[in-house]
Amino acid sequence: MFSISFLTSLLFSTIRLSTPLIFSSMGGLITRKSGSNNIALEGTMLISAMAGAVFSAYAQNLFIGLLGAMMSGLLISVFMGFMSLKMSADMTLTGISINRLADGLTIFIIFLLVGDKGTTIKLPSLTFPTVNIPIIQDIPFLGSVISGHNLLTYVAFLVVVAVWFLIYKTPLGLQIRAVGESEKAAESVGINVIGIKILAFALTGAICSLGGAYMSMGYLSWFSASMIAGRGFIGMSAMNLSNARPFRTMFIAIMFAFVDALAMTLQTLNLPAEPLQMLPYLITIIALIIFAKHDMAREEKKKKELLMAKE
Amino acid sequence: MSDNVLLMNKMTKVYPNGFVANKDVTLSVNRGEIHALLGENGAGKTTLMKMLFGFERPESGQIFIEGKEVKIKNALEAIHLGIGMVHQHFMLVPSMTVTENLILGDIPRGPMFTIDSKKAVETCIELGKKYNMLLDPQMRVMDLSVGGKQKLEILKALLHGAKILILDEPTAVLTPQETGELFETLKMLAHDGHTIIFISHKLDEVIQICNRYTILRRGRVTGTGNIESETPSSLSAMMVGREIDLDMHKQKTEFKEKVLEVKDLVYVNDFNKKVVNGVSFSIRAGQILGIAAVEGNGQNEVAEIIAGLKKASAGQTTLGCVDITSQNIRKRREAGVAYIPEDRMVDGCSATSSITDNLVADRFFKKKFSKKGFINKAAIEKEAEELIEEFSVLCMSKDNPIGALSGGNIQKVIVAREFTSGAKLVIANQPTRGIDVGAAEYIRHRLIDISRESDVGVLLVSADLVELLSVSDSLIVMVDGKISAYFPDTTQVDEYMIGEYMLGVKRQTEEEIGGALQ
Amino acid sequence: MSFTEKMRKTAIKYFEAIRVAFAVFLAIAIIMVVIFFVSDQPLDVLYWLVVGPVTTLRRFGTVIELLIPLGFCGLGMCMMFQVNRFNMSCEGAFFIAGSATAILALYLDLPPIIFPLVIIVVSALVGGCVTIVPAYINEKYKAHIVVSSIMLNYVLLYLGRFLLIHWLKDPTFSYNGTPFFPENALLTRIVPGTRIHTGIFILIAAVIVTYILLYKTKIGYNMRYSGQNAAFARYVGINTKKSILSAQFIGGMLAGMGGAIECMGIYQQLNWEVQLGYGFDGMLIAIIAKNNPLLVPVVAFILSYLRTGGDLVNRMTDVPTEFVTVIQSLVVIFIAAKSLLATTRHRMLIKDSMSGKGAN
Fold first, then answer.
1. Which of A77, A83, A96 to mutate to test the interface with C (most CBs of C within 10 A)?
2. I want to staple B174 with a disulfide (CB 3.0 to 4.6 A). Which of A194, B119, B178, C145 is the partner?
3. Total-model pTM
4. Quick check: ipTM above 0.85?
5. B425-429 and B482-487 as β-strands: parallel, antiparallel, unpaired?
6. Closest of C30, C27, C111, C101 to residue C328, by C-alpha
């Protein structure tokens, strides 16, 4: 069972499945750094997945498909930012509602367009090409794991570096972090706090929407109403668990993707599907508990040490 | 020296809850002067300055800078107009470095969208040299001393070309040396042509460095003029509306049995700082013990630990002869602890709940008000009516949310609840902060009454020295989480003496301090 | 006092109600504008949405039928919100209660009346045990309650499907469904020509009990104090953790009851393969009802009416029923937006305080 080909396909799917998680976690990371708690990553991805499939099908142009996905993800994210920051709506409530809005809106739109509430399989949507990396693709094992992925998968890994650079190396990143850590401090030097926060929402929307576009224009070649299936939340958890540090977030996202890939690969072995499908969500809950426990233990230890040291 | 730099004309600000924070306030400041903005807590000083700095929008009024009318919609516009503000609570990003904090508003850009960190550091050093306020550019703000943070705040304002510098109670958190240094800096800046607005309620400091003053009381201007022609008592008269007379006419009594004893209390806060460090004292029935300390020296934590809101890291608390160190809040309350918390709106009441619900929050579960788990609404309403009557709480209806009341009346509700819970020990943490004079006086009298008539021990924590001296029988002073002085009889001391201990200029011997634990 | 002043005072007093009405109006208006553009028969949409549910007894029956599960989830979410927690696991509790109901109904045999009651009680406990999981890990480890509860909903979804497909399902059916429940495990239908069942009485009882619990008992006082201001509740000596957890347990119980009642009353078998969305509906209901159980049936009725209308629109016109979901989500967001109309209110307040005695 654990042959090389099994391992290869397992690792290959891990990378494949980590794509949407990396996008959603990187998107969430930016709003988190700006001090907002964006739980609408799920809905943002869903809407952009739908938009990508629809735009690319009607325009028959991959770029317009991508642009459509990104614009709609950006818009919905900015809408959330505007309502919660400018109109002072509770951010959690707004986030939950945006997710629900996305459920309804996507079905509403695809039904109007194709007369089907489940998928857009009837639409001639385009997909992003797969890329074979020269030289690497010829390395045995490694080549078949790393090469041959969808273009957006590679973009995902580039986005990790880009987000890291943005947050830690650029003036905007410095301002985003300042706003996130101390709104008052940022305001006192004349930074437009709400503006920066909404800008962070826009960036989040754009990045998340790449994850959505990947789902409908890479992972599959159509949109399906239940296709995001909690990936926004799992990505968000990966980000929270790493305390919003880009590279750690990426690793945790890959770990979650591994569980997902394992579950999928095992399903091919005639095991019952449901317990395996349950696995990624269960692991997320368990990870939430373990990391929180770990953090608390560390805090306690620090306090105790200080008490001992001074006596 | 008399050309006008800033004129705020007839400013009015109404908060969304209907509170009128400023009414027709006019402030006129000349170039190169240090102008004192005086007033009690809640007089409207901060609101006025927030309008100047663009944090709040006025309902009416005009602002003139060097004779030109301006509209200030946000902090950025204020900064462009040459206004800089050093806030009471520092507005710095703790995890970032001195340089990063300094350049935050105007970041030097390098190639490829990056930050030009070399230039940033240079700016930081140059500025420090220019104004003689040197700071390590790579140090994280959280590791800076309080004085250092304040310097950084001033530098921040100056970097953006501030001509008018507002300092909101800058000395409240400083040591005497740091205060001295700050005053030197301010004088130098004023000499260089900067204009300084100095917000304070410490009259001696104001007389020491300011040229002119404007006094606010309850949102209105009550006086303005040259400092030279005033004395501390004439200024304070304008601040409170009458000469300070806090003779409470309290009678001397014999203290009875010990109600509270704390021994070697230690508390480590969430930032891993030891804010209470080995505090021991005791209180007897009928005694009012005051704690005097500059804000943030552990007095608040001591009160919260005894009340059970915070858990001591080490030490022992005994009520009567019961060890309550590890007991929860309900057990402590049952044993006889009552607490008036420092932050009324967070701990003291539930703003959206009715006055009734707030009054009975500590007793609705008792036999008198409930039967077999069901609440006896009639009994609760009767209790609430009685308490409202007895403590003369001014309200339209007992069913209205408490948040709609004035600060003084909210505090009366809290006092009504805490004083009627049958306590042996009442802890009053800043009981009169920010409330109107009438309510404050009323609460002080009730504090003395309860200790004299019901043999209750009282622990009074207050930032108001006059109040502390006139209400308490004995007094301890805390500095840096430790007791630095103990005065068994407050009639033998005055606020200047206490001030020296509070600021750490003097310290009693261990033996004298040990007297606090009889 | 002049007339306008009086009007102003009234407006300030009932400001919240006005705001809610405005939010609902705004959401519906936005969607209606969209529908006017995309639909060939916009007037039909309006007709079926507004009048459709009362055109036949059968249709009005649907409104009442739907009101029952919505009401239970609304009550459940009231409990969550009364203690100020965004526990979204009512959805999962409702769903998994269906599985519990099916197991009990198919493998247990008790006399009528007692049988459904036993099933309801057990399902309620199952629901409570479900919602307590995210509640507990939130109190104990500060884990994000929205994320963990939604993840839990997925776990329960697959658990329920697993039980259905690999155990409970009747293989002779062409779809995934259990055999129909025996007669003694069903809730009696009470209005001929509709599927309205005795569950409506249980809902009414639940509304009253929840109201009494929250507003008339010590336990309820503890919960409400904990929810309104936890710091204050702690300070007056309330064990806030215990109150917050038990409120969420009861919330889960209510959702669980709803699941069992829906399963026995309407479906009479278990064939749930996807989440039913009642958890979110419950949230909407609780928000509009201001977490007051007595208002829950009223709001649930309005939503249920909209839903039924939406389904009719779906059947009779070219517009899919999901536009109701969109309206619903927008309503929540608009109601939550505190700044909506805030400037108007602020202006009124200033005029009020300037005109005399309002000023402090």
1. A96
2. B178
3. 0.86
4. yes
5. unpaired
6. C27
